Amino acid sequence: MSDEVELGTMNDRAPDSDSVVDRLGHAFRFISVAMGLLIIVIAALLIYVVGSLRPDDVRYAEGDRAVQQAHQAMTDQETGLRAYLILHDSVFLQPYQQGVDALAAANDTVTRRVGSVSAAAPLVLEMRVTQQAWISQWAIVVVNNQSPTNPDDLRAFLVQGKNLFDQYRVSEQRLDSLLDGRRESVQTREDQVLALGLGTILLVALGLVVVMERQRRSLRKMLVAPVDDIVAATERIASGDLGARVDTTGPTEFRRIAASVNTMGEALVRAREEAASRSDLVEQQAEQLRRILTMAREIAGTLSIPY
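Above: the chain sequence. Below: its structure as tokens.
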């Protein structure tokens, strides 16, 4: 009865800090914290990429594409007007008019996408000014048939148109170079952020692998030796060696099992001692009965009439 009370008290006892449950709980909490931090870092990087870098990349890409479309529209206008100026065929005014419409749409896109960028705004304004200078000082003159007819004057007029277009071209290239550089810078930052995220994932994963390996070895050391001791002791007790005992060290759960095995062994020893005592008592009583029987036979013999 006292043994059962002792075992019940041990089972009701709160686990110590070196229990297997606590070890597994610590490992699980560490993994949970590491995964939480990893999720937070990845979420922050994604928010930065999606919320800041990617819109900038799209803005600069669309702005650069609109600048190129504007340049194509300007080129179409110049080509059509030069052909019209030389051949005086109104069919060449069609690409000019298409270029006018395309230029207006492209300029609107450029202003909307990159006009608010502090570094790009002056270059956008410069490009628009040089465009307007070429249009007002040369293109409109050709369209209104006000261009000179004298060969020398016409040659000078053509040179003037080329110079105005070259000025526009310089401003367009400046803006285009700025947008290309800004877009490359954004893409570089995107690559750096992605590399940082990948490095963080690899670092955390490596840390988890190292921690889990250490936990595995620690748990193996905690579990294998006590289990082997318990199995060996129970096998010895089963084979009749009731003096076998288990070392009550290690995790709390195994100390409880070891204490239970040791209590069981002590109970078996006491039971064997009690059985041996009862066997000795029976043997003593049998010996006494044999002596009484012998004495009774002797007494009966002395009372025999022939004797």
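Residues 1-17 have pLDDT under 50 and may be disordered.
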